[in-house]
């Protein structure tokens, strides 16, 4: 399926809110549409507007968003496998209760985005602007975070992270510079994580920043949190 330069909302809804496979959507307006309960496989969204769009209970497999606008878009109860975001505007996006595997996010604007109850595994974040983000109850497992020094991007700078676990993650270019952490753990992480973090009840960051070496004040709650995500 190939759809190009289409703005009619009803036609787009009828064409895309289905079990979609091997499709390319180009220069279309998907603003304010709701897509739910249908898997998308090998779908490309190129140069589209999908602002304030909602993806609910969607399985997105090998889906690419390229140079598209997704401001205020919501991903709720979604599963993303091998999704690719490249050159997109994801400002104020909201991610709730999602499972993300093998995602690539590069050269994207994700300022002020919110994320809650999400597991992200084997994924990479490269040259992204995510300042003033709010990230809560997240597990990052085997992920890479890279900011090139000449990219002008600031990563998660000035964001707030609470109840987050980073396990076996690699950092380049201080993508967590200026971050505020509360009840977080960094396990087997390495690289240039941060040199200016405000830490509360956080463990594993002391050798990467000016944070004092801390231990978790409530290990029982930490273990319960981890077990809930297994």
What does it look like?
Helix content is 8%, strand content 42%. It has a 22-stranded parallel sheet that branches. 40% of the residues are buried. It is built from two helices and 22 strands. The protein is elongated, with a radius of gyration of 18 Å. The model has no long low-confidence stretch (mean pLDDT 90). Strand 1, helix 1 and strand 2 form a beta-alpha-beta unit. With 230 residues, the protein is mainly beta.
Count of extended strands: 22
The N- and C-terminal alpha carbons lie at a distance of: 38 Å
Described by the principal axes of the CA atoms, the overall outline is elongated
Helicity range of the residues? under 10%
Beta-strand residue fraction: 35-45%
Given helix and strand content, the structural type is mainly beta
Instruction: Return residue spans where pLDDT drops below 50 for at least 5 consecutive residues.
Output: none
| Count of alpha/pi helices | 2
